[in-house]
Amino acid sequence: MNNDQAHEVVSKEKQTRVRVKVPGSTANLGPGFDALGMALNLYAWIDMAIADKTSIHLIGKQMEDIPADKSNLIFKVAQMVFERAGVHHPELEISMYSDIPLTRGLGSSASAIVGALAGANALIGGKLSDDELFQISSSLEKHPDNVGASLFGGIVVAFWDGARAEFIRLEPHPHLEVLVAIPAFQLSTEKARNVLPKQIALNDAVFNLSHSSLLVAALSTGNLDMIRLAMKDKLHQPYRAAMIPGMLHILEHATEHGALGAALSGAGPTMLALVDGRSERKRELEDFLQSTLNKEGIEAETLWLTPCLDGVTVSSLSEGSPKLHQWIDREDRE
Ligand code: HSE
């Protein structure tokens, strides 16, 4: 899959009812602050249909605090698509369900933005290009790492310069797996960005650009052993460490317990380890992450994930299709 064909919409015909499946993601991968993202096989689903009157159905406990009126992010982003495409702003029926934990550093807000863009664009026959969706989502998030991964899948290397975003998508190594330890507490991206310094020393900048470049080279050539040396950061993780007790210990010692490398996932608080799926030390690594966080009094859920190769996908629904709340209970929903 190349940059031009990464995002698939079932049909360029106008749809009246669509179901969007959008992956969550991890950003930064350590040194690639605001530049690297990887899609993960944790998903959000959005049903969107043109309606006579707007109604928004948020399914699941973690959606309880999210507004279900026209201030809803998905509704607002959909209106941006209609405005940009110069079409009438229809009322919408929206349903959403997500397995991506909110405010944990796994790209939940990026997935909502990307899902809303892709769904609304499908309802108007795909008038906006993938590039336009990427530009809109990058400027909404102010960094392209999570949105790029959710849109295009795989690993995305990207920048956003305030006017335009550019990216190249890399195919993840087939044996690359991801262990995440998701703390029970939330940490907003805003809070985790506010602790960062406005300026950094040249030697720290050089450290990060050399390590991030090496990490991209390691990921694109499949040199998994090099990840251990490349996945180090001096731009953001040291400043965020105080908000995630146990993080520095995990970063320093995860490779001694079978990880290829470890990082804070996005702005945190989730900790992430890259793992060779053929490793026989997966249990040991999981115990290490759990026990390190537990010792700090932090409860965490561990999940084994894989990179998601597809970005957002949209399928059309018919009148008889199961409603989202019925469909998410189905075992074969993947
Ligand atoms: N690159 C971003 C950060 C990801 O680390 O703040 C969070 O959205």
Q: Can you describe what's shown?
A:
This protein is an alpha+beta fold and 334 residues long. The protein folds into two domains: 3-170 and 308-327, Ribosomal Protein S5, domain 2 (2-Layer Sandwich), CATH 3.30.230.10; 176-305, Alpha-Beta Plaits. The protein contains eleven helices and twelve strands. The strands form two sheets. Strands 1, 2, 3, 4, 5, 6, 7 and 12 form an eight-stranded mixed β-sheet that branches. A four-stranded antiparallel β-sheet has the order 9-10-8-11. Strand 4 (55-59), helix 1 and strand 5 (91-98) form a beta-alpha-beta unit. Helix 2 (108-123) runs antiparallel to helix 3 (130-141) and helix 2 packs across helix 4. The chain binds L-homoserine. The site of L-homoserine (HSE) has 13 residues, from helix 4 and helix 5.
- Per DSSP E runs of 2 or more residues, the count of β-strands stands at 12
- Based on Cα principal axes, name the global outline: globular
- Spans where pLDDT lies below 50 across 5 or more residues: 1-11
Count of DSSP-assigned helices: 11
Name of the level-1 CATH class of the largest domain: Alpha Beta
Bound molecules: L-homoserine
Span between termini: 21 Å
Helix content: 25-40%
Structural class: alpha+beta
Q: In sequence order, what are the helices and strands, one letter per element?
A: EEEEHEHHHEEEHHHHHEEHEEH
Radius of gyration: 20 Å
Q: Any guess at the CATH architecture of the largest domain? A: 2-Layer Sandwich
How confident is the prediction overall: mean pLDDT? 93
Number of domains: 2
Main sheet properties: 8 strands, mixed
Strand content: 15-25%
CATH topology of the largest domain: Ribosomal Protein S5, domain 2
